[in-house]
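Researcher: Here's the sequence for the chain we discussed earlier.
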Amino acid sequence: MTNSLEGEGARDWSPLLVAAEQGDADAVRSELAAGADINQSDDGGWSALHLSALNDRTAVVEVLIEDPEIDVNARNKWKSTPLSLASAKGHYACISGLVRHPK
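Model: Thanks. This is the structure I predict for it:
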């Protein structure tokens, strides 16, 4: 398995972050149901929402933004938000989901 953020500590990611990066919406739901912190991030500030938006994982973005606790405006250590990452990559379905979020 190759993570898109090699060298960013991906080997130390929680199951939630791995599932989000891989686009496994069912695993993301399971992790959240088991009590995972939806806004957890790695040392670089990459959250599940950052990873799913960056990698065009629309189903995961949709699962995450359904939760009222999600921080859609979280910034990683480079000051990138999930929306800025999705926008930079042209991931229109992810952008659409993120801009629909009420926060």
